[in-house]
Design brief:
The chain is of the alpha+beta class. It has seven helices and four strands, in the order ββααββααααα. A four-stranded mixed beta sheet has the order 1-2-3-4, covered by helices on one side.
């Protein structure tokens, strides 16, 4: 999915491309917040108000993904690796580098930079939520800040799962690379774990669909397919 550019701009000296597939994810997040989450946690508000808040939440989610990728890009540049660009896709982003890391340490630091950014953002939004509460800025602002804090912590945790091509999987590959001294073999091991994880995620998605959580089920299913395809491609590339 994707392949067409919706928006292109520069940030911190990097070319950033927003793929058209983001229209779907932005719409899904906005709709889910406006029709399900916000009416549940903030009852008795007008529907239009929910949509305004939902748009703010979706914009915060977009910013969180963008800053995650900036973490990878800035760290790669710190190690002298040219960054060809950053692409934001339907289920995340890709930082395109001209070459791979020269050492396991470089790969660990580059891969870990993205989840670290999300963890720091989660802490920041949590502090802002506490400040909003003490200043009595109102329940809507508090809800959005708590949502953005929670979503960033979730992004950090998910990305640290040691399953390739997630950041945690790339860190695991770097560790295997360090111990085995064989980058292709380390990639195959990490990618096979990624494939197993994708099957587990598919099972979770099926269970969510059975329970009637159609949005969540489809969301996790598409992510599982994406992870499976990327892991399988890595195994085949390094045969």
């Amino acid at each position: 999915m994707g392949g067409n550019t919706l928006l292109q701009f520069r940030m911190l000296g990097f070319d950033v491309r927003l793929d058209t597939s983001w229209i779907f994810i932005a719409g899904l997040i906005t709709w889910s917040l406006a029709t399900r989450y916000l009416p549940y946690v903030l009852p008795n508000y007008y529907a239009a108000f929910y949509w305004v808040l939902a748009f703010a939440g979706a914009a915060g989610f977009f910013l969180s993904i963008l800053l995650h990728e900036m973490g990878h890009a800035v760290t790669a540049r710190r190690f002298g690796i040219p960054v060809l660009g950053v692409t934001l896709l339907m289920f995340g982003g890709i930082t395109q580098m001209a070459r791979r890391a020269k050492s396991p340490k470089e790969e660990i630091l580059i891969s870990g930079a993205g989840p670290l950014v999300n963890f720091l953002l989660g802490c920041l939004f949590l502090v802002l939520a506490g400040l909003a509460r003490s200043l009595e800025l109102g329940a809507p602002i508090l809800v959005i800040l708590n949502y953005l804090s929670w979503i960033n912590f979730i992004l950090a945790i998910i990305n640290m799962v040691p399953a390739f091509p997630l950041d945690g999987g790339q860190i695991f590959r770097a560790i295997m690379w360090k111990f085995l001294g064989d980058y292709p073999k380390a990639t195959r091991i990490a990618a096979r774990i990624g494939m197993v994880f994708s099957y587990a995620l598919m099972a979770w998605a099926a269970w969510a669909l059975i329970r009637g959580n159609y949005i969540g089920g489809l969301w996790w299913f598409f992510i599982a397919i994406m992870l499976h395809n990327a892991a399988k491609a890595a195994v085949q590339h390094y045969k």
